[in-house]
Amino acid sequence: MIRRSSLTLVAGVTLVVTLATGCAGHHNSVTPAVQNTTTTAAPVSSAAPVSSAASASTVAVPVTPAATDAAPAGATTTAAAAAPTTAPPANQAAAAANASTLAAVTQDLAGIDAGSSAADKDLSAGDSARAQNDNG
Amino acid sequence: MNRFTKATAGLGTAAVVLIGLTGTALADTGSPAVSSASPTATPTAAPHGKSLASIQAAAAAAIAKRLASLSVSINDVNNNSVITPADKSTLLAILNGDVTGLTALGVTIAGDTTAKQAASDYSTIFTSYRVYVLALPQVRFAAAADDMTVTVLPKLTDAQTKLAALLAGVDSGKNTPQVQAWMADLAAQITAIGTETNGLSATVLAYTPAQYDANHALLAPARASLGISRDDIKTARGDVSNVVKALK
Questions:
Q1: Which DSSP state fits B149?
Q2: Is B49 left (phi over 0), alpha (psi -120 to 50) or beta?
Q3: pLDDT tens profile B93-128
Q4: Burial annotation A82-99 (CB, 10 A radius, 16+ → b, else e)
Q5: Percentage of residues in chain B having pLDDT higher than 70
Q6: Which of A76, A82, A89, B130 stands 20 to 30 A from B1 (CA)?
Q7: Using an 8 Å Cβ cutoff, are A119 and B144 in contact?
Q8: How confident is the model at residue A36 (pLDDT cuts 50, 70, 90)?
Q9: In angstroms, what separates the C-alpha of B75 from chain A's closest C-alpha?
């Protein structure tokens, strides 16, 4: 009789210990999950400096890292697409006209050099011929 | 048959004739005058007091040398893309005329029967053609004048126009007194080159051996004008280059 009671007590203690251990293990498994959530949130804040000031407000909105990556890209694309719609600065057009015309003038200089070189050769050849005694 | 073809045919005929002349001279006298290739020594040493054969040999050498020089010059003129068509026509007429005349003269001298006659004909190699002191310089000086008027001057004017447009427009802020001075000098040089070379090639091409015989300084004014223009081109080129640097 005593032996049965002892067995029942042992079984009861074992059950309590088992339950306690099981609860502790479950509690431990929850903790990393919370940490993971914290970790996944970190890239959101680290991605912000990469983005331009114009897209900074959109960086805070996304929840997932994937959405965070897409948002600045979209913002950048929008900004790039908007640029050509605005007129180029006046000094940029002037610089283009300047470069184009100066390139043409440089070509003129090359032509001048070619003509001058040909004239030099002709003058030299003429002088060389005249230097020969042809007076009989 | 065009002039050039005639000239080529003439050169061939002349070569045959001259080979014959030279061979005869060597066979008859063995004269060392034949071996003289120098145009300086040959004309003055051969004719007077020499035998008929030596005169004929000297004439053959002098004519052969001139025909070779004329052939080179004809080729140069034909290949020149700068010389104006009118000048090219005139030049080829002069050069081919000399080829024809000298070839015929070679035949005449080869047929002379007296030293006196050969010496007289020999002198006309020089007095009637003046290949070295007139014909060839005519070609080169006319070509030089065309190099300047056909190629250089339009390029200088084009550069001047383009630079002036920049300075009046997008680069007006860079139109400093120094740039203005370069542009003013460029304009002056272009005017001077135009004045110096205007009609110069036609003037040079109109000269004849008879005119040269009367005035051995015949080509001097044209040569001086070409030299002045060449210097003006260098100055104008420097002006353009300076303005380009200032606008970059």
A1: I
A2: left
A3: 999 999 999 999 999 999 999 999 999 999 999 999
A4: eeeeeeeeeeeebeeebe
A5: 81
A6: B130
A7: yes
A8: very low
A9: 14
Q: Provide the 8-state DSSP code for B133.
A: I
Q: What are the sequence ranges of the domains in chain A?
A: 1-42, 89-127
Quick one: average pLDDT of B177-183?
97
What is the pTM for the complete model shown? 0.64
ipTM value for the complex: 0.77
More confident residue, B209 or B46: B209
* Spans of all domains in chain B: 3-129, 135-247
Nearest CA in chain A to B145: A119
Cross-chain residue pair B43–A119, CB shorter than 8 Å: no
Of A104, A108, A129, nearest to B132 by CB-CB distance is A129
| Crossing angle of the two packed helices B153-168 and B220-247, in degrees rounded to 10 | 30
What is the Cα B36 distance to its own chain's centre?
25
Rounded CA-CA distance B243/B76 in Å is 36
Which residues have C-beta within 8 Å of that of residue B124, sequence separation ≥ 6? B105
The partner residue sitting opposite A98, judged by closest CB among B125, B136, B171, is B171
Structure tokens at A47: 């991605």
Rounded to a whole number, what is the largest CA-CA distance in chain B? 84
